[in-house]
Amino acid sequence: MEVKLPSLRGLNAFEATARLGSMTAAAEATGTSQPVVSQRIRALEEHLGLSLFERSGNSLVLTPHGERFYHEVEHGLQVIHGACQEMYRLSGVYRPQVSIAAGSGFTHLCLLPLLPELKACFPQLRIHLVPVDRDDDASMQAADIAIRFGRQSASSGSQLLAEERVLPVCTPAYAERHGLQYINDADDLSRLTLLHQDERDPRWLDWKQWARAVAIWPIPDEDIFPFHNYPLVLNAALEGQGVALGWKFIVEKHLASGKLMGVGPEVARAHYGYWIELKYPDNALVQPVKDWLVSALNDERE
């Protein structure tokens, strides 16, 4: 007897909800609304005759049946997604899109310069860069390739791009103007304009955390000048407006060229760094793009 299959939209809604942990996030990732996602999942449960989620208030947890079904469906949708993209590529009628999401600073300072070469290497694809402000942004969850900063992801497919190494940087001219050779104590800091990103995000090391790590304390709060994003922080440092915390992976080129110089101890937090992962690890169309990015970003540092 032929088994009637459930709706593909219902399967997509279920997979996104199970992967992202909420129907609201799934709705954002799939370009629909939360009530639509809820309706599709209920229809899927009615079709299967089983509850896939345990619902308690705002909490949503997979049932044992749901866990088993998710692992099977996730793999199946990956295969279907990859097969369709490959057929689009072979047909030449439609170029599949590969989205790459990363923090705004990383996108503008590291990915954007590589974009022309990346497009030239993969002319059969449409490459879409997605700058995001927060790691839990739905755009980050929905991207084919995600580059995250912070502690190692729980995802087994997460690959380390670079460990976190942070040091104070400024222009040689700024250092000379302020008689700065090396930051050794709080008195040295009190003479400087400290530049920092004005974002309450615990992933990022700030001046107080840096000072605590190198046993310098206290830091006058009024001497820290905030910016809305890291490209603005770095630009201000390059223009000689103050001293910024520089993530080595981002500022290595400027240090090598002499535009910036290190003026304090380097801090490295265990298990922190830049991590790259695929939304669907078995996607044969996206994997080569990820491999190219890893190679190109490492070449940029050498």
Automatic annotation (TrEMBL):
Q: Which molecular-function annotations from GO does this UniProt entry contain?
A: DNA-binding transcription factor activity; sequence-specific DNA binding
Annotated HTH lysR-type domain ranges read 6-63
Which processes are annotated in GO (biological process)?
Answer: DNA-templated transcription
InterPro entries, A to Z: LysR-type_TF_proteobact-type, LysR_HTH_N, LysR_subst-bd, WH-like_DNA-bd_sf, WH_DNA-bd_sf
UniProt entry tagged with the keyword Repeat: no
**Which keywords describe this protein according to UniProt?**
DNA-binding, Transcription, Transcription regulation
Q: Has keyword DNA-binding?
A: yes
Gene3D superfamilies in the record: Periplasmic binding protein-like II, Winged helix-like DNA-binding domain superfamily/Winged helix DNA-binding domain
**Protein origin, superkingdom:** Bacteria
| Family of this protein | Belongs to the LysR transcriptional regulatory family.
Name by which UniProt lists this protein: LysR family transcriptional regulator
